[in-house]
Amino acid sequence: MLFSKSKLLIPLMGGLVLCSSSVSALACTSIYVGSDLTADGSTIFARSEDISNSYNKLFYVSPAGTHTAGETYEGCYGFTYEFTHDSYSYTAFSDDNGDGADGVCPDCGSAHAHTPYQAGGTNEMGVTVSATETIGSSDAVYEVDPYEDLGIEEAEIVTVLLSEAGSAREAVDLLLNIYDTVGCCGGSGLFIADNNETWYIENTTGHQYIALKLSDSMVFTQPNMSVIGLIDLDDTENVIASENLIAVAQEAGTYVGDAQENTIDYVASYNGDQTANGRMIDALKYFNADEASEEPAASDYTISNVDAEGNIVPMYTNITLDHDYSIEDVVEFYHISSIGYTRNLETHIFQISEEDSITDTVEWVAMDDASYSVFIPYYPMLTTNTYDGYQVSTAASVFTEEEPTDADLYYPTTTTVRDGDERVTVEGFCALPENWADSFYWTFDALSNLVEFGSLSEEQIDNINTTLNDLQTQCYDVYTKLQDAVASAETAEAAAETVTEISADAAADVHAAVVELVNGVK
Question: 24-390 has which fold?
Answer without folding.
Answer: Penicillin V Acylase; Chain A (3.60.60)
